[in-house]
């Protein structure tokens, strides 16, 4: 619960930096909180960082697509602040820091992990977006057949 | 309406989208759909650093617009407004003057005020330091460091140096001030403070967007974005690394 609030705060302020509308800020914050909670829970049970990030990103995708339909706003308004807690910024920083300290094997480890995490986020969000578009298309087709 | 005017509207909205950090496919789609809603077929080619739009004009000549986009920030509200604008065009015809006026209004859309964003940057650092299992003291230190970084970065930006210099200086500040804080009160964890306070600098969102572009098939822009993210990470990392190395030898 404490972590939910912290991630909420992070995404909320991320929303301010990315300049989204005031009425959407709270929803973007909740998106970040949910994604971090999903990530933290999965990480606790499985211990796989890439898999947990993927689950977190799927939650972001589902939430933002749903809210986009309810609030009539494009989905990225929620998804970009929502992935803010998940993005591998610290990983990118550590990679370079290891290179500066000339411990290259650590740098490669961290770099590959960063790339994998970023890929997991992108795939997670794209996965849900595609699912939603698929659903919309099936709905249209059913509507046409009637 | 003349083809030239339609092209102007399309290129203006593409420019706003691109400089607000929209994805490539969105820029291409918007430019095309704006032209389409005025009954013109156009082709456009978009890269993160600029774009070209081209179509056949009234007298069968080719009209091409090339635009270089230099400063790219993240501004979701502008993207949102342009999106709404292009949706509106699909349903109703808007005259040239009105459309340009709407676009100019969107371009001047107010940002949050600087103090607000400063405090937001501080809270980001605060919450991420806590999330990375730092103590409360670490988080408070990160809060102030992050606010300082944001302010300085903004100042350098307004003077107008090249982009990576800002990140380098910000990284040096993060490293240096955390070291000073550690010197004053040795209970603080330097690592946690640094990670939290550079959270506003590190290019996590660009890396993710780069991969997203690749998944949509925009390979060139994907690599450009990943390259930009890499250089930002290098600038920040080297900035922090230099300060940490100083501390090893001279403190």
UniProtKB/TrEMBL annotation, chain A:
GO terms for cellular component: plasma membrane. The chain crosses the membrane at residues 43-63, 75-100, 115-136. InterPro entries: ThrE_2, ThrE_Dicarb/AminoAcid_Exp. The keyword Membrane applies. GO terms for biological process: succinate transport. It is found in: Cell membrane. It comes from the Bacteria. Residues 4-130 form the Threonine/Serine exporter ThrE domain. The keyword Transmembrane helix applies. It is a multi-pass membrane protein. Keywords: Cell inner membrane, Cell membrane, Membrane, Transmembrane, Transmembrane helix. Belongs to the ThrE exporter (TC 2.A.79) family. This is Uncharacterized membrane protein YjjB, DUF3815 family. It comes from Caloramator quimbayensis. The lineage of its organism: Bacteria, Bacillati, Bacillota, Clostridia, Eubacteriales.
TrEMBL record, chain B:
Keywords: Cell membrane, Membrane, Transmembrane, Transmembrane helix. It holds the Pfam family ThrE. Its main location: membrane. The chain crosses the membrane at residues 118-149, 161-181, 193-211, 231-250. It is found in: Cell membrane. It is a multi-pass membrane protein. One of its GO terms (molecular function) is transmembrane transporter activity. Residues 9-246 form the Threonine/serine exporter-like N-terminal domain. Belongs to the ThrE exporter (TC 2.A.79) family. PANTHER family: SUCCINATE TRANSPORTER SUBUNIT YJJP-RELATED (PTHR34390:SF2), UPF0442 PROTEIN YJJB-RELATED (PTHR34390). This is Uncharacterized membrane protein YjjP, DUF1212 family. It comes from Caloramator quimbayensis.
